[in-house]
Amino acid sequence: MKTFDGIININYLTPETAKFERVNEFVSCTLLGEQEVNHPKVSLRRAFPYEFECEFISILDPDDKELGMIRDIAIFPEEVRELLVNELERRYYTLKITKITQFKERHGFSYWKCETNRGPAEFTLRDTFRSIYKISSGHIAITDVDGNRYEIPDVSKLDKASYKKIDIYT
What we know:
6-stranded mixed beta sheet
């Protein structure tokens, strides 16, 4: 059996080793121990953004250096969980497409009009094939020219007209 001992060292953060709070508009992290080290501005990144929304959360300083990883947000007190979840939702804001009302392609771009879980949306993709990512069977993610993210959790649940518009890309 292969192990990663000595190769990978993950510093798992727990309520005993890290304190999180919102300071102004930023999330701060204080690493607890013999010497407390405060990081006034940290960012949160999901190691597995589609598989685990609240597990394996990497905590990074402004230079993208990993301070540690949260194995599961559920181990933190409610107010900390709420802070971390809200920050993740802000960072990974993704509209879920429920219907594609219009789809046109011109000169390497595709123009979309859709219904989403948050209302109507219009966006543009450059190189449609490279802007649509297959997450799993029937589950796709889309990134538009502005970096906005959209998701179709199950293309088979789209109406026939919507499915027909994107069938070639899934």
